[in-house]
TrEMBL record:
<dbReference type="GO" id="GO:0032259">
    <property type="term" value="P:methylation"/>
</dbReference>
<keyword id="KW-0489">Methyltransferase</keyword>
<keyword id="KW-0808">Transferase</keyword>
<protein>
    <submittedName>
        <fullName>S-adenosyl-L-methionine-dependent methyltransferase</fullName>
    </submittedName>
</protein>
<dbReference type="InterPro" id="IPR029063">
    <property type="entry name" value="SAM-dependent_MTases_sf"/>
</dbReference>
<dbReference type="GO" id="GO:0008168">
    <property type="term" value="F:methyltransferase activity"/>
</dbReference>
<dbReference type="Pfam" id="PF13489">
    <property type="entry name" value="Methyltransf_23"/>
</dbReference>
Length: 278
């Protein structure tokens, strides 16, 4: 994540945001066929060292650990320690880390898997540097995986979701970043010597488009919580930075979730993974 001082995204530093992230985690897992890792890693052997950057409350790490037959070493980092788990678990550790700052020297070539999900869009204009610095943390033969938004919009998307996408693009542009940098990651990884680089685009199904009733419900709630916070953030930007009017920003958190409940929407993502040369 970018520094707290550099971006208003930390208006989203609330318990509602953790709820939204946990619901989105379930939608990610559903869209990825029940998998959290698409890189071909054998978690039955080990132990392995696994890093999750922008970990928030560590849910991704805990969920991955629950599927592993071996007690691996799990490390979570985030610029904001407020949501780190309070309970101490032997093979879990958490550390405050700004992706723009220097990573610990002894972490170079340390990890079997380095993972980050939806952390690049808020990293500002130095996204490529963030990717390269994280790539240094992967041991020879180890893997890195990024999951980022893909700027694709279904032709049958409803008007509220189209406004939502405009809001996403405008917000990240105003922060000097892009809503979707996922299409550049594969090239950046190859530039620093990674091999077997692959990518996959998939869609998170929100609301009425998700056949699982519980996931459909979570998608509607997630949409509402996200829009409430994003629209509040958008109002803090100078005039002209955001295409939507204040009246549209007032309506979107109300009408957007209703559209999601009745019509649904698909939020496209791009997973990119690659192997550090042995």
């Amino acid at each position: 994540m970018a520094s707290k001082e550099d971006t208003p995204a930390y208006i989203m530093d609330t318990s509602d945001e953790i709820t939204r992230l946990s619901y989105n985690h379930a939608l990610f897992k559903d869209a990825m066929g029940g998998n959290l890792v698409l890189a071909p890693i054998d978690f039955s052997s080990g132990p392995k060292r696994i890093l999750d950057s922008a970990t928030a409350d560590g849910l991704w790490l805990r969920d991955l650990a629950a599927t592993c037959p071996v007690d691996h070493e799990f490390t979570g980092t985030d610029i904001n320690p407020a949501q780190f788990p309070k309970d101490s678990v032997a093979n879990f550790s958490y550390r405050v880390q700004d992706v723009h700052g220097d990573w610990p020297v002894d972490w170079n070539s340390r990890f079997d898997l380095v993972h980050q999900r939806l952390g690049l869009a808020a990293s500002g204009p130095r996204t490529q540097d963030v990717v390269k610095n994280m790539a240094r943390l992967v041991r020879p033969g180890g893997w890195i995986q990024f999951v980022e938004a893909d700027d694709h919009e279904s032709s049958d998307a409803g008007p509220m979701w189209k406004q939502n996408m405009i809001l996403f693009r405008d917000l990240f542009k105003a922060m000097g970043s892009r809503y979707s940098s996922g299409d550049e990651i594969a090239g950046w990884l190859r530039d620093v010597g990674f091999e077997d680089v692959e990518e996959k685009v998939f869609g998170l199904r929100f609301g009425a488009l998700n056949p699982n009733e519980e996931l459909a419900r979570k998608g509607v709630i997630s949409s509402r919580l996200g829009l409430q916070q994003l629209c509040a953030i958008a109002k803090t930007f100078p005039p002209g930075a955001i295409s939507l009017s204040h009246e549209e920003l007032d309506r979107l958190p109300v009408e957007g979730p209703l559209e999601t409940e009745k019509q649904g929407h698909i939020m496209y993502m791009r997973a990119v993974w690659g192997r550090q040369r042995a």
